[in-house]
Every structure is written in C-alpha cells, then in structure tokens.
Design goal:
Elements lengths: L2 H10 L8 H9 L6 H4 L3 H8 L9 E2 L10 H17 L1 H6 L1 H16 L6 E4 L2 H11 L7 E5 L4 H14 L2 E5 L8 H9 L6 E7 L11 H10 L3 E5 L11 H4 L3 E5 L11 E5 L32 H17 L1 H19 L5 E3 L12 E5 L4 H12 L1 E2 L1 E5 L2 E6 L7 H13 L2
Parallel strand pairs: 1-11, 3-4, 3-5, 5-6, 6-7
Antiparallel strand pairs: 2-8, 7-8, 9-10, 10-13, 12-13
Helix pairs in contact: 5-13, 7-13, 8-9, 10-11, 14-16
The structure holds pyridoxal-5'-phosphate.
The site of pyridoxal-5'-phosphate (PLP) has 11 residues, from helix 8.
Length: about 425
C-alpha cells in the first residue's frame, strides 16, 4: 500500500457511524469482564472507540498532549449546553450558574480523590499554579525550588515573584533515566532548607512523560517543613491515582488535556486549611479565609465549558480509568520498544513502565528536534512537537486511545530511516 492510501485507510478508520450514547456503552460492556491489560491491545475494541471521534485525515496526530480533542459524544453535549445557556440567558447566569459549577466541582473531586471543599474549577493549569505562586505571602529571602524541565509559564511566574518580592529560585535538573525513586527524592531534598517556602514538582514531566514519585517527594519535603505544589497538567485522566494519596498541598491541572473537556478548563486542589495562605488572583469579598471559593472569582466566563466537565467525566468513567491508562501505556511501549536499541535514536523517557505512560520523547542523534518534527510532518505525515530544552532534544510523541498501532509503525519506520 502506498503512503497516500495508507493514510487514507488510517483516516477512514475514524469515520463511519460514530459510536455514541447507548451504542458506545454497550460496546464498552463487551470488555468489562476482561483485565485492562488484555483490552489494551484489543484493536477491534479501540477501533470502535476511534469511531466516536472525528479525526482529520491529513496527518497522524501524535501531539495529543497539547489537548485531547473531544469525542463526538462530549462535543455534542457541550454544544447542547451552549444552546441551553444561550436560550436561558441572564436568567441562567443569575440563578443556577454557580450551583451548577459547584456540582461539577463535586463530581470532579470524587473523580480525582479529594474533598469538594478542596477543589475549584479554573480555566487551565497556568491559572491554577500561577495563582499559588503569585498568591503566597512571600518575603525577601524566601526560597522556591523547581526543575528546569517544569513548564515555562510557571518558571516565568517564579521569576516574577523573585523580581517583586526578592524570592530566591533554586533550579534542579531531573534525569531522564533515574535508577531509583530515591535518586529523585534526594535531588530535591538537597535544595531544601529553613528558607524554602515552596517546592514545585511535575507529576508527569511534560517534555518526556516521566512520572515522578510524588508521594515520596511530598513526605520528604513536609519532613523539612516545605509545602509542595504539583503540576498535574498531564496526569489527570491519564494515569489512575487519588490526589489525597499524593500528600501534596496544591495540585493544578488542565481538564482540556486528558479529560477531553472543551478548551479552557482546569482545576486547582488546595489542601483543607491552606486556602487562607494564598492571595486570590482576582479579589473576592465576603468569604472565610479558608474557603477555597475565595480563589475562584474570575468574572463572567464561558459557563457551558464548566457544564461539559460532567459529560467528560462520564465518558472517562465509561472508558474506564484503568483501561485508558493501560491502553496509553501499551501504545507508548509499542513504539518505544521498537526504537530504543536503534543506534541513531535517543529515547528520553524511562524504560520502567511505572515511570511513564502514554507520553514519550525520542530524538535522532545529530538532528535538531525542529528538523525532526518538520521531517516527520512533511515526509511521514506525522504531527508532533519538537522539544529542545534542558536535557531533552527530540520530539514528544503523544498518542491517544484512538491511535492505531499502524500509525505508530509509520513513526517507527521514520525513526529507523532518519539519520
Ligand atoms: C506540565 C504542564 N504544565 C502546565 C501547562 C500549561 O497548561 P495550560 O496551557 O492548559 O494552562 C502545560 C501545557 O502543556 C504543561 O504541559
């Protein structure tokens, strides 16, 4: 089969009668009795899930880490919510808007494993985490610790509080292939002292997919009196966990990533009793200092996006958190296991299955990541993102549950051929 007809065949697999509603639920019922690891490689099952998405046929999308497009089922629900709010107008906004947002936050708290009093819906990870970084009552000489692999917006916010308040930022570098959890814990422990106010860690490093031992790091930091803020942008609805089990103080994430909520949706967890330590991003009056909703004032905003969280959680629960995690890990290992030993390829993601899931990163020796991304798109019709920062030179490869092994074979072929 030539490349054009292959891409067409792959694209066609995403067309047809979309599986939604009861038909989709029945489809998933078929595999409910099977272990997640077995379902992970059942291509006929995942072809049905793929059929519920509208996929652009021009390229193979391996950049689902930026944002997970919505399956038709969530998209249709979102459009319905937009129509309904437009129909009710100001009446909706003045009567049930806030109660509805709260009920979505309660549902999200149940999904993410925390109490509803500890979680608010925000617009994205940037808003959630930058509110904490900017809202701490800093004094000159306080220290903050982070990694050069952390997301740029948060690093910029730390630079801003350094310039405003005289905070000292200490930056570590996370190894791509740690031998043990202890190596990571010690990397951070070495930077903490009596001046440290906040440690920021990624749950999953966005440029490599590396999953950090969050609970161990939090326990170590708390032993030294340091609060921990976790960047969970890529972890929510990607890997299974409960926020309460992480022992962190703050946790921010974007729901438009792995939960497939429409663009512009995020969450912030603040451990009970700690909301009073933070200045809100935008002022809110008449609330108790420790009431987390004090941190949630953003003015009029697209309320339909909040409502779509409900349909996205239902969809995620229907696919099944364990099944989704197993599928994503299977897809990552499917291609990385074929290229790790190639002499021209560098895989920047740990080999240990517990230290990574769907995301991985690979580069070609001697080739700039930007050139690799261009070549993958122009020559192989694969869309990825180039990463050229810290100790990571390569392209981030992010499949979604609907990605087919045949698509990853194209990536493997490309990485094998490129020099
Ligand atoms: C680790 C990490 N943190 C934060 C963000 C920012 O997310 P958003 O733009 O949704 O605020 C991203 C975006 O990719 C990310 O990967």
């Amino acid at each position: 089969m030539n490349k054009r007809s292959f891409i067409k065949k792959v694209a066609m697999a995403g067309i047809g009668v979309p599986l939604t509603g009861n038909a989709l639920a029945n489809w998933v019922d078929r595999v409910n009795h099977l272990p997640a690891e077995k379902v992970a490689s059942d291509e006929s099952f995942w072809a049905g899930i793929r059929g519920g998405y509208r996929l652009k046929p021009d390229y193979i999308n391996l950049e689902n880490g930026y944002y997970n497009i919505m399956p038709e089922q969530i998209l249709e629900n979102y459009i319905k919510q937009i129509r309904e709010i437009n129909y009710q107008g100001a009446y909706y906004m003045r009567t049930v808007q806030f109660d509805n947002k709260k009920s979505m936050a309660t549902k999200l708290a149940a999904m993410t494993g925390c109490s509803p009093e500890e979680l608010i819906i925000t617009r994205n990870t940037t808003e959630s985490l930058d509110m904490i970084i900017g809202g701490i009552h800093w004094k000159s000489g306080d220290e903050a610790v982070m990694a050069e692999q952390d997301y740029g917006s948060m690093q910029e916010m730390f630079k801003q509080v350094a310039a405003r308040f005289g905070v000292v930022n200490k930056i570590v570098s996370i190894p791509n292939h740690p031998a043990t959890d202890e190596e990571i814990v010690q990397l951070y422990a070495a930077q903490l002292n009596s001046n440290t106010r906040l440690l920021m860690i990624p749950h999953m490093v966005n440029i490599t997919g590396h999953i950090l031992p969050v609970q161990k790091i939090c326990d170590m930091a708390h032993g030294k009196g340091v609060a921990v803020m976790v960047d969970g942008a890529h972890a929510i609805a990607h890997i299974e966990f409960k926020i309460a089990d992480l022992h962190c103080d703050y946790y921010g994430a974007s729901l438009h990533k792995w939960l497939s909520v429409p663009l512009g949706s995020g969450m912030l967890y603040v451990k009970k009793g700690k909301a009073g330590d933070i200045w809100p991003l935008l002022a809110e009056g008449g609330k108790d200092a420790n009431d987390i909703s004090r941190l949630n004032h953003i003015g009029t905003h697209p309320a339909a996006t909040d409502l779509a969280i409900g349909a996205a959680i239902d969809y995620y629960n229907m696919i099944g958190p364990a099944r989704k995690e197993a599928r994503l890990r299977y897809l990552q290992q499917y291609w990385t296991s074929k290229v790790r030993s190639l002499p021209n390829v560098i895989v920047n993601t740990p080999v240990d299955a517990a230290r990574c899931c769907g995301i991985a990163n690979a580069g070609i020796k001697g080739m700039k990541p930007g050139e690799l991304a261009d070549t993958l798109l122009k020559k192989y019709k694969i869309y990825t993102v180039a990463i050229d920062s810290a100790n990571v030179q390569g392209c981030r490869i992010t499949p979604n549950v609907f990605t087919m092994p045949e698509e990853l074979d194209v990536l493997v072929k490309a990485l094998t051929e490129l020099k």
